[in-house]
Automatic annotation (TrEMBL):
<keyword id="KW-0328">Glycosyltransferase</keyword>
<dbReference type="InterPro" id="IPR029044">
    <property type="entry name" value="Nucleotide-diphossugar_trans"/>
</dbReference>
<protein>
    <submittedName>
        <fullName>Undecaprenyl-phosphate mannosyltransferase</fullName>
        <ecNumber>2.4.1.54</ecNumber>
    </submittedName>
</protein>
<keyword id="KW-0808">Transferase</keyword>
<dbReference type="GO" id="GO:0004582">
    <property type="term" value="F:dolichyl-phosphate beta-D-mannosyltransferase activity"/>
</dbReference>
<dbReference type="InterPro" id="IPR039528">
    <property type="entry name" value="DPM1-like"/>
</dbReference>
<dbReference type="GO" id="GO:0016020">
    <property type="term" value="C:membrane"/>
</dbReference>
<feature type="domain" description="Glycosyltransferase 2-like">
    <location>
        <begin position="4"/>
        <end position="169"/>
    </location>
</feature>
<dbReference type="InterPro" id="IPR001173">
    <property type="entry name" value="Glyco_trans_2-like"/>
</dbReference>
<dbReference type="GO" id="GO:0009247">
    <property type="term" value="P:glycolipid biosynthetic process"/>
</dbReference>
<dbReference type="GO" id="GO:0047267">
    <property type="term" value="F:undecaprenyl-phosphate mannosyltransferase activity"/>
</dbReference>
<dbReference type="Pfam" id="PF00535">
    <property type="entry name" value="Glycos_transf_2"/>
</dbReference>
<comment type="similarity">
    <text>Belongs to the glycosyltransferase 2 family.</text>
</comment>
Length: 248
């Protein structure tokens, strides 16, 4: 079974169209929305869609307030692991992650353990970004890759697919990051556990509706968290069987 986890905060304008696209491209897939009490009624819209259109494959976790990206995904992962899902996706709600890539991820995960959607390998890219935004993103991946000694080109992206075994092996209660660095930490923990990681190219397009959740506080958390993760390396299980693969 396959599950897409989508964290939301004020994404009402995107949800109906996004869900229709996901279900059209991968019929039978399940979607879990983790909504952080969106003032715009995102959670209420999802509840309505469950009742009217997707009673069997759309699910919702409603949280009391804006608790952060990392905790939203952790809640979703724990929900998934209590059920019989074998492949578990992370995906944004704003169409910056195009649902057309879902079959590509599913094909890739058959031969690996964690698939990363990468903007910075051959075939990948970004659209509608300023030079400054590109610089921050590229710099963030290079900074993280250098300090944590990982070979992957895109460490900050949030379009991923995990085998359930990877999430079962990671102690989710010990994941420390809750913002921009959450994606880095999850890949780092999987890498140190020795799981195979493959990057597949995606083109990331700036969100169609709403506003970016990035802030200076989130960015600074990431800068500091990288060093905390590096310091905690010896406490994590390290294996030599990690394989690095690239789909160019």
């Amino acid at each position: 079974m396959k599950l897409v986890i989508i964290p939301t905060y004020n994404e009402r304008d995107n949800m109906e169209e996004l869900l229709a696209a996901i279900y059209k491209i991968v019929p039978g897939i399940h979607v879990l929305v983790v909504d952080d009490g969106s003032p715009d009624g995102t959670g209420e819209l999802v509840e309505d869609l469950i009742q009217r259109r997707y009673p069997d494959n759309l699910f919702l976790i409603k949280r009391a307030g804006k608790l952060g990206l990392g905790t939203a995904y952790i809640a979703g992962f724990k929900w998934a692991l209590k059920r019989d899902y074998q492949y578990i996706f992370e995906m944004d709600a704003d169409f910056s992650h195009n649902p057309q890539y879902l079959p590509v991820f599913l094909a890739a995960i058959q031969e690996t353990d964690l698939v990363l959607g990468s903007r910075y390998i051959t075939g990948g890219g970004v659209k509608n970004w300023s030079f400054f935004r590109r610089l921050i993103s590229l710099g963030g991946s290079l900074y993280s890759r250098t300090i944590l000694q990982m070979p992957f080109k895109d460490l900050t992206g949030g379009f991923k697919c995990f085998r359930r075994e990877v999430l079962e092996a990671i102690d989710l209660d010990r994941v420390k990051s809750n913002g921009y660095s959450f994606q880095i930490e999850m890949t780092y923990r999987a890498f140190l556990q020795g799981y195979r990681v493959k990057e597949v190219p995606i083109v990331f397009e700036e969100r169609a509706e709403g506003k970016s959740k990035m802030s200076s506080a989130i960015f600074m958390e990431a800068i500091l968290m990288i060093w905390k993760l590096r310091a905690a390396r010896s406490q994590m299980k390290i294996s030599r069987r990690s394989e690095v693969e690239k789909l160019a």
